[in-house]
Design goal:
0% strand; 10 helices; globular; mainly alpha; 241 residues
Amino acid sequence: MERYLIFFILALIAEVLGTVSGFGSSILFVPIASLFFDFKTVLGITAVFHVFSNLSKIALFRKGIRLDIAIKLGIPAVIFVILGAVLTRFLPVQHIELGMNVILVFLAIFLMIKSDRPIKPSNSNLYIGGITSGFIAGIAGTGGAIRGITLAAFQLPKDVFIATSALIDLGVDLSRAIVYISNGYFTSKHIIYIPFLIGISILGSYLGKIILERTSERTFRYIILIVILITAAFQLYKYFY
C-alpha cells in the first residue's frame, strides 16, 4: 500500500510540474511510473491518466483555445500516435524502454539548450511537430516536449498555450489509450487506479494553474528538465548495470 501511495504522490507532483512547464506531465510521469510498473503497463496507465489530465486542463484553461493550431498539429499527431502504439506490440519491451530513456535524456538536454531559441512558426513545422510528437508518444509514452517546443514558436499566452496543447494531447492520449487497452496494457486489475488518477489530474492541474499565475515558467521548466535528466539517467544505469 505504501508503494502505491508513493506512486500517487509522485504522480501528483508530475501533474503539477507538467501543467506549469507546458510540456504536459507525461515527460516526468513516464520515468516515474517505470519505477513501479513494467513498461507496457506504464504506457497504458500513462495514456488513461492523461485523458483525465487533459480534460482537467481544458476545463481550467478553456478560454482562447487556438483551434487552427490544434487541428494542424493534432491531426498528424493522432495518426502517428496510433502507428507508434501499434508498433509497441511487435518491438521488444527492453528496447522500447531503453529507447524511451535515451529520448528523454536527449530531449532534456536539447530543451535546455534550445529554450531561448524557439523554432520558426510555420504550418510545415506544425505538421512535423505533430508527426514526431505523436509517433514518440505512441512508442515511448511521451511526446509533450516536442509538442511544447513546436507551440512555443507561436508565442501564445500561457493559458492559450496550455489549453491548446491539452486539446491536442487529448486526441493523442485517447487514440493511444484505445490501442493500449486493446493490446492488454491496461486491464481490469488497473481500473482501481482510475478514481485516484482522476483526483490527481484535477488537483494537480488546479495547483499548477495557481503556481503558474505567481511564478516564472522558465524556472520550473529548468527544474523539470533536470529531474527528467536525472530520472532517465538512473533508468539507463539500471538497464546497463
